[in-house]
């Protein structure tokens, strides 16, 4: 198999991997698994509750991983589930969960906000535009990738 990876893609993959590693290190430092942190982060990004399907969609975690992590968080008294109509479930933080989220996921959100606040507004907008353009193009290209 011949390797035709452009220097730009190599750099992108390196930066993406390093960024992911930073989030992993933060999770470890704060005493959480990556999946628990992503769930708390997604809930905090939405307030104090979030639809289960949105956690799967926005966290990038598989449904199986989310359900496994939620069972553990529920057993620890961090979250509880409630019906959101039909088959939908809402994942809510308990008081203990709100405290934990404040010491963990909220700190990451604040750090990210601080980073964006330190950039010129034009750079923030350009970064977001380019990221969205890449996402949309990748989504479109994925349609032409054949299944195995």
Walkthrough of the structure:
With 148 residues, the protein is mainly α. It has a single domain (35-142), classed as Winged helix-like DNA-binding domain superfamily/Winged helix DNA-binding domain (Arc Repressor Mutant, subunit A). The chain contains seven helices and three strands, in the order H-H-E-H-H-E-E-H-H-H. It has helices spanning 7-29, 34-46, 52-59, 63-75, 95-103, 105-118, 121-142, and strands spanning 49-51, 79-83, 89-93. The chain has a three-stranded antiparallel sheet. Strand 2 and strand 3 (89-93) form a beta hairpin. Helix 2 packs across helix 3 (52-59) and helix 2 (34-46) crosses helix 6. The longest helix is centred in the first third of the chain and has 23 residues, at 7-29. The mean pLDDT is 95.
Give the proportion of residues in helices.
55-70%
The number of distinct structural domains comes to 1
Q: How many beta strands in the DSSP annotation?
A: 3
Kindly provide the radius of gyration, computed on alpha-carbon positions and rounded to a whole number of angstroms: 18 Å
Briefly note the structural class of the backbone: mainly alpha
Q: Please tell me the overall pLDDT.
A: 95
Which strand order spans the largest sheet, edge to edge or round the barrel?
A: 1-3-2
Taken from the alpha-carbon principal axes, the silhouette is globular
CATH class: Mainly Alpha
Termini separation? 17 Å
């Amino acid at each position: 198999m011949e390797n035709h990876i452009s220097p730009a893609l190599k750099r992108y993959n390196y930066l993406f991997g390093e960024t992911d590693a930073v989030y992993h290190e933060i999770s470890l430092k704060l005493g959480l698994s990556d999946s628990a942190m992503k769930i708390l982060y997604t809930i905090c990004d939405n307030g104090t509750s979030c639809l289960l399907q949105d956690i799967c969609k926005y966290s990038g975690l598989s449904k199986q991983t989310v359900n496994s992590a939620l069972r553990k968080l529920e057993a620890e008294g961090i979250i509880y589930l409630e019906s959101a109509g039909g088959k939908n479930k809402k994942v809510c933080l308990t008081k203990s969960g709100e405290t934990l989220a404040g010491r963990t996921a909220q700190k990451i959100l604040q750090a990210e906000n601080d980073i964006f606040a330190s950039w010129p507004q034009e750079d923030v907008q350009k970064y977001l535009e380019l990221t969205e353009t890449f996402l949309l193009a990748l989504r479109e290209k994925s349609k032409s990738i054949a299944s195995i």
